[in-house]
Amino acid sequence: MANIEKLQFPALEITGANYTAWITNMELHLDSEKILDTIKEGNKTASHEKAKAVIFLRKHLDENLTHDYARIKDPLDLWKALKERFDNQKKITLPHALDEWANLRFQDFEKVETYNSAILRIAAQLEYCGKPVTEAEMLEKTYQTFHKNHYVLQEQYRNRGYTRFSELAVALMIAEKNNELLIKNHNIRPTGTKAFPEVNATDVKNPERGNVSYRGRGRGRGYGRGRGHRFNRGNERSYNPKGRGSNTWNRSDRGKGNEAQENPTRKNENVCYRCGSKGHWSQVCRTPQHLCKLYQETIRGKAKEVNLNEHFEGTTSTYLESSDFMDDVDEATHQDN
Q1: In angstroms, rounded to a whole number, what is the distance separating the alpha carbons of residues 123 and 135?
Q2: 3-state secondary structure of 230
Q3: Which regions are flagged for Basic and acidic residues bias (predicted)?
């Protein structure tokens, strides 16, 4: 049955794989409890202290090991028995640790943190086996196993003159994090791409307003007649399409502007008051005069419905749109040319 009481550190495995770490933790905890002398030769500690040490030792043994040494009541005898059984781990660990050290390469690890853990573990095993590794050897092992494409970085780190491996490990970890951030920013927006510009709300609501160049027919300089003249000089000026026969410019009413903002479906479009077509001004209108006259009479309500049907044969609706005049406009334009 597993120990119900919480252990201070991992118990000794039956294979003895963690014997080195176990004896280190055991000595520290016995010393903290002031019963470390119970496992030393020639000690004269009290019986209750020996009993406390034996209980602590058995508590941190594998269940099978506890059964093997159940009759031992002296902590010194139990300590010696375990040492005779598992102290040969040095001879078993040393060849494996030397092989790992010989094949250790910095370029084989994807993360600096993983390489740091591996080299420190191997160094600890070699030190336990009586083959300690110096700081200079750990630094040289790292420099010599850089990837061949990073030989410049290897020389840069070597020229910094690190004396402790921990300093080199910290510098490598910082460089790794900076590279990851650089790659992340590049993947978000690769080279050659450009962020979308911010949309101007005023331009969206009033696409026709702005600097619109216009070349008129007249020679003079006036509204709608000068060469290269610009419509809408100010942001507050707009053309009044309702003014029949007048090319005056009116200040836009702020109240109407608020209504336009409240009604987003309303669109500002250029409508020719001569022919009713959209997309051009009356100054550049090339619709034949008779069609313009017919349109003017239609919007005044003087034309009769039957006359419109007679003029537009095949038309079933008396409601006129600017597109109804486009065919005649094209024919008239062709004849003028």
Answers
A1: 10
A2: strand
A3: 251-267
